[in-house]
Amino acid sequence: MPSGALLVQSIILGLLLGGLYALLAAGLTLYFGIMRVVMIAHSAFLILAAYLAWWTNSRLGVDPLLSMVVTVPLFFGAGVLLQRGLLSRLRPATLTMMSVLITFAIALIIEGLLGYAFSGTQRRIQLGYGTAGFELFGARVAVVKLIAFALAAVSLAGLYVLMKRTQFGWALRATIQHRDAARLVGIDTERTAGFGFGLGLATAAVGGTALSLDTTIYPSLHWHWIGPLMAIIVVGGLGSVPGAAAAALLLGLAQSLLQIPMGATWAQTVFYVALFATLAVRPQGFFGGRLAQRF
Amino acid sequence: MPSASSRYLPLGAGVLLIAAILVFPSLAPNPYVLSSGVIVLNWAVLATSWNFVGGFTGYISLGHGALAGLGGYATGLLITKADLPSFVALVAAALLVAALAVPIGFAALRVRGASFVIVSIALVLILLLVFQSWSSVTGGSRGLVVPRPFPGMLRPEHHRVFFFLYGGLLLLALATWWLLDRSRFGMGLKAIREDEDKAESLGTPTFAYKLTVFVVSAAFTALAGGLYALWFGDLDPVFQFSVLTGSYIVLMALLGGVRNLFGPVLGAIVVGLALEYFKVEFGSTPLHLVTTGLLLGLVVMFMPDGVIPSLAALVQRLRNREQSSIREVTAADLAEQRRREREAANS
Q1: Is some CB atom of chain B closer than 8 A to the CB atom of A109?
Q2: What is the pLDDT of residues A41-88, one digit of tens each?
Q3: Alpha-carbon distance B300 to B321, whole Å?
């Protein structure tokens, strides 16, 4: 039986990690809601943002968090371009399959370019406050993990307000719910869909910066993220943001707790077990809405 | 009614392929070229096996690399741990992978497209994790050495034997695809590809059909992976369970054309040779990822039906033959075409 402090530590770390998962899964859910697209390149953009944060810190000597001033608008633009320039040009009938291949191709290109530009060497940001931490119920919590969680929480809250309270949010949700009806009431669905993609990719910029604070990064790291993220959106029910958030916290917690008896590598399998179990038992996901039924 | 040329063309191509397989080993100037031939044939079998699912049903799997890896490891483990003769182990491994494909397919195919792709990628990632970590059985990152099936045979002779074995397997896979293509079962699968809802409402048991063809595809893929294990003799989880393998297979099949019997073979020859060339010229740099990504993106954007249909359309245009009254376009294309016409009329 693990000691109480270790347990508390795992629970706190699991929830902190779950917060980051939730933010990233929200991006994936947005893409799926807007266009029924499974965006494989999401985590590649995540690692790209982490590399840009690392580069900002090591070359320019400024805090990695400042890189978001550039990466968030940049990624938003890239998301809009991706949707308008590539995905919306695919044939509607084969969109789901072909968009997977396109985004897969983009992931390969990003991974290759990262390897070419920065080599395959593992990189890590050295921060003045990197080792700082504090005690909570006998558990040690690193400040950087808390910053990462706060970033994720603030962005998720911002996303929520944007979706629920602003006119753009209404337009975006209308586009997701029923594109033809949205067009009938005068929403420019094409533009809204493009902005929705930009928003999704902006979550990857925030997430990548948060990730870079306390993680060793390398170009092929994105494969370790896309698997868990895809499992999360399936368990949560494809297209449901609250479902994805709930699944993210739950699975992040499970992963963290399972690390105690099983070790870090085997604990990762919890995502895949959850993925297969969900599809076999309840393919529409456990928190899923109407959308998930058919996919 | 298919025209005479479309009926005899596959036959001619088949004869050409058999002839090429028979003469290539004696024409190959050195063992290296012969071994490249074996690798290309391996890709051809993999792409053709993939095309059972991808071509008939339109479900795109990025995980077939992992099924091949599983076939390879199962073959190797059955030889080393269970002391089975090499080729008995090969067949047993294929049956094992086919059996395993049933629950995988059950989870992946109950719902439509998106989940299938997610499961196929997850399959690669989880198998890599398991085979790297479970070192007491799989040898872990150190890899697994598979004993040669013909001890004492010289290397060039070894390549030659495996070239013919792969050739035989390729012909078997092609013949199976051809038979399915003209069967009622194949008709149902193609109906799923064109419109799964309509197929279902017309009484096609879509789930059972999809699952069956997935299992067949997995068995052929495992046979190719098992042969590779026997030929190469050394398995490394990083290469056996690589997402790249799966994406090369998809690239080959799409480039050649998934609706054609010989499309994947053609794609495998083109991409397989290119891969070998790049390996010799540039070694292993991150840039091959970029090249693969760009190529895949270009094919998906501009040639989603592959080169064979594109070339056929070109020939058709050049010949300027009069159109037959029966359209050979997919329902989706037709809908798209009509939509465009409508929009043009409205504006």
Answers
A1: yes
A2: 999 999 999 999 999 888 888 888 888 889 999 999 999 999 998 888
A3: 28
Neighbours of A265 (CB within 10 A): 13
pLDDT in tens, B87-136: 999 999 999 999 999 999 998 888 777 788 888 999 999 999 889 888 88
Element (H, E) at B309: helix B307-319
User: Which of B9-13, B29-33, B213-217 has the highest mean predicted lDDT (pLDDT)?
Assistant: B213-217
- Pinpoint the alpha helices (H) of B86-154: 86-109, 113-133, 135-138
Q: Spell out the alpha helix ranges (H) of chain A.
A: 4-35, 42-55, 68-81, 95-118, 143-165, 167-177, 179-184, 189-214, 222-236, 241-262, 264-267, 269-281
Single-letter residue type at B151: P
Inter-residue contact A109 to A222 (CB < 8 Å): no
Helix (H) or strand (E) holding A139: strand A139-142
Beta pairing class for B144-145 and B234-235: antiparallel
**Both tokens assigned to A269:** 């399998």
| 3-state secondary structure (DSSP) of residue A176 | helix
Model-level pTM? 0.87
CA B28, CA B26: separation in Å to the nearest integer? 6
Q: Which of A108, A268, A271, A276 is the mutation pick for testing B, counting most B CBs within 10 A? A: A108
Least CA distance to B330: which residue of chain A? A93
Q: How far is CA B268 from CA A198, B37, B128, B141, B310, in A?
A: 36, 11, 24, 29, 17
Nearest to A204 by CA among A103, A291, A18, A76: A76
CB nearest to B108's CB, from A106, A227, A279: A279
State pLDDT tens for residues A88-98: 888 887 888 88
Is the distance from CB of B234 to CB of B143 less than 8 angstroms?
Answer: yes
DSSP for B12-70, written as a single string: HHHHHHHHHHHHHHHH-SSHHHHHHHHHHHHHHHHHHHHHHHHHHH----S-HHHHHHH
Q: Is B346 exposed, middle or buried (0-12, 13-18, 19+ CB in 10 A)?
A: exposed
φ/ψ (deg, to 5) at A140: -95, 125
CB spacing of B122 vs A230 below 8 angstroms: yes
Whole-angstrom CA distances from A98 to A134, A203, B60 are 48, 23, 8
Tokens 């982490």 map to which residue? A50
Please answer whether residues B179 and B172 qualify as being in contact, where contact means their C-beta atoms are separated by less than 8 angstroms: no
Q: How confident is the model at residue B320 (pLDDT cuts 50, 70, 90)?
A: low
Residue type at position A252: G
Q: Which residue has the higher pLDDT, A291 or B60?
A: B60
The structure tokens listed for A127 are 């921060």
Instruction: Read off the pLDDT band of B239 (50, 70, 90).
Output: confident
What domains appear along chain A, each with residue ranges and CATH number? 4-294 (1.10.3470)
Nearest CA in chain A to B289: A112
Total residues belonging to chain A: 295
C-beta atoms of A115 and B289 within 8 A: yes
- Asked if A112's CB is within 8 angstroms of B288's CB, the reply is yes
Distance from CA of B58 to the nearest CA of A (A): 8
How many residue pairs from chains A and B have C-beta atoms closer than 8 A?
156
